[in-house]
Write a structure and sequence with these properties.
Layout lengths: L13 E10 L15 E8 L6 E3 L5 H4 L12 H17 L6 E5 L13 E5 L6 H6 L4 E2 L5 H10 L3 E7 L8 H11 E12 L1 H6 L12 E2 L2 H10 L2 E9 L6 E8 L7 H9 L5 H28 L4 E4 L3 H9 L10 E3 L16 E3 L11 E4 L5 H7 L4 E4 L5 E4 L1
Parallel strand pairs: 4-5, 4-7, 5-6, 7-8, 12-13, 12-15, 13-14, 15-16
Antiparallel strand pairs: 1-2, 2-3, 3-9, 8-11, 10-11, 16-17
Helix pairs in contact: 4-5
Bound molecules: zinc ion.
Length: 400
């Protein structure tokens, strides 16, 4: 039995996934000779008591979300479409015509840019502030916590909907966060959370969802336990299949304030037989197998004189590259469309990131490694006539 204790309930937890020491996924380097400063112990453990999967050694959030945090979701047309649809759905479902909405971490626009009601964002990433200004999205330039929430409720407003996407799993202090949400949420307001669904992540073998921003993995039982701790309950769930792999949208409200959708029970029933912990143990073996196959294939391509390039310098690809010890000899370059990443180097492995506009100059017979595999369709449509090596759900070659 490990000596780790559950971050939420304090029960002993059991290590189930160990990806060794990893650099923080977003700490891109300015030069190939720079020394990586920020490492963490990539071990995830399972709490049998509250069913919460958790990273045991949580990096300091101020490092994870440093000032040059490069992920600007709105730069992906795909994510913009998702936010537009989500904004419309929430507007209609909770009748926000006269309402107010808060988004925690709208990044460069989130759903707020598409909502025609009073809105407010909490955004700590400096790179996003001028973009939010330009889009006319009112925001507080700070992270969301109990203190900033109290002040906001007093000076600004309380909201009918508080929304956050891909945030909850990255937080160390869930307690402070939920207490903050209760401060800014109207009495019958709804807290809406989107996050990868850990059961889908494991069922789909999406091992690279395990990186420094994945502090928690939520099952329905875990989320219900968490909600209960704060006087709330899960009132609805939506399954999202089109972004970040398999994600869930959780709707929570104070106990008894809103009817509970049959979707909640249906999800619970669908997963009642699910032995997540056992699957997580097998997951480790699968990660080891894919890492070995991936490196062997890259070595084979190098030895046979093939040109190899990467496509998409995602945070998630940092996990695999470091775990499998892929270096510039095996993968000399990765192309990416995000301006804030171009010219930098991937942490740990020090592979340079070049502008995707130069991808057109890559010889047509080069093998391209697809890192954001969940955007495969979009990327294949954009980059036709290429030969791709994909590593998910298994190592395979594809043509675009
Ligand atoms: Zn626990």
């Amino acid at each position: 039995m490990s000596s780790y204790k559950c971050h939420l309930c304090g029960s002993p937890v059991e290590a189930v996934v160990d990806l060794h020491v990893q650099p923080l996924a977003n700490s891109l380097l300015d030069s190939p000779d720079a020394i990586d400063q920020n490492w963490y112990n990539a071990v995830w453990a399972w709490c049998r008591q509250c069913e919460l999967l958790q990273l045991t050694d949580v990096p300091d959030a101020s490092i994870v979300f440093a000032g040059d945090y490069p992920y600007l979701s709105g730069q992906s047309e795909y994510m913009n479409q998702h936010f537009r649809k989500t904004a419309k759905m929430l507007y209609d479902k909770y009748d926000l015509s006269m309402g107010r909405a808060i988004e925690i971490g709208p990044n460069d626009g989130g759903i707020l840019q598409y909502l025609s009601c009073s809105v407010l964002g909490f955004e700590p990433a400096e790179a996003c502030w001028p973009i939010l200004d330009e889009k006319g999205v009112p925001h507080r330039q700070m992270k969301f916590d109990l203190r900033s929430a109290r002040e906001t409720a007093a000076v600004w407003f309380k909201a009918d909907v508080v929304y956050t996407a891909n945030t909850l799993r990255s937080l160390k202090d869930l307690r402070d966060f939920f207490m903050g949400v209760l401060e800014v949420l109207n009495d019958d307001g709804v807290f809406v959370v989107e996050d990868p669904y850990i059961i889908d992540v494991v069922n789909r073998n999406e091992f690279d969802q395990f990186y420094s921003e994945c502090v928690y993995g939520f099952t329905i039982t875990a989320m219900q336990n968490i909600a209960r701790m704060f006087g709330m309950e899960v009132i609805d769930v939506d399954e999202l299949t089109d972004n970040h792999g398999g994600s869930l949208r959780w709707h929570m409200a104070r106990v008894g304030k809103r009817p509970i959708s049959p979707n909640v029970e249906a999800l619970k029933v669908a997963n009642s037989e699910f032995a997540l912990k056992d699957k997580l143990n097998r997951f480790q073996q699968m990660i080891d197998d894919i890492s070995v196959l991936f490196v062997d294939e890259l070595a084979h391509l190098r030895d046979t004189g093939k040109s190899v390039v990467g496509y998409g310098a995602t945070s998630k690809s940092v996990t695999l590259l470091n775990y499998a010890n892929v270096d510039v000899e095996l993968l000399p370059v990765v192309y990416d469309t995000t301006p804030s990443k171009v010219g930098k180097f991937l942490p740990g492995v020090h592979i340079p990131i070049r502008d995707a506009k130069e991808f057109a100059d890559v010889p047509r017979d080069a093998i391209c490694i697809l890192f954001p595999y969940n955007h495969q369709r979009e990327i294949f449509e954009r980059e036709k006539g290429r030969r791709w090596l994909v590593y998910f759900p298994k190592l395979d070659y594809k043509e675009s």
